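Budget justification aside, the reviewers requested a transparent look at the raw inputs and outputs of the sequence design task funded under Objective 1. We therefore reproduce one unedited record. The lines immediately below are the structure tokens for a 125-residue chain.
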């Protein structure tokens, strides 16, 4: 039997499960993109657009699920999940040796896309 969080209590476990589902979706979609790259040899610009679409779709999914479940302040929960997704993505990139913390366009663009995707998912749930 699942317990509902009390008034004013943060649903941390639910948010972590939702983030995990978003990352599973990201992994599956990136595998499909890699397969398409292997089989068709699509260009670098198409791969970049595909990665951006995958980030937005994954955070949208997380925000949508959170909004459906939590029913209050849906946009805020979606925004929080989008930001958490971005922070974990940045940490994983840094641990893999990429210099993700440069204050360049791609860093800020990815931040806005992840946060915006999550918030939009929450608002449309």
């Amino acid at each position: 039997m699942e317990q509902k969080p009390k008034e004013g209590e943060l649903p941390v476990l639910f948010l972590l499960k939702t983030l995990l589902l978003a990352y599973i979706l990201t992994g599956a979609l990136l595998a499909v993109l890699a397969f398409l790259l292997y089989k068709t040899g699509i260009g670098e610009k198409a791969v970049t657009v595909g990665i951006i679409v995958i980030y937005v779709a994954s955070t949208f999914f997380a925000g949508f699920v959170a909004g459906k479940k939590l029913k209050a302040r849906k946009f805020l929960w979606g925004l929080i999940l989008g930001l958490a997704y971005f922070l974990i993505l940045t940490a994983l990139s840094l641990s893999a040796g990429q210099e993700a913390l440069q204050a360049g366009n791609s860093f800020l663009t990815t931040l806005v896309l992840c946060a915006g995707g999550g918030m939009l998912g929450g608002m449309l749930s």
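The two ends are 24 Å apart (CA to CA). The first helix runs from residue 12 to 40. Computational costs for records of this kind are itemized in the attached budget.
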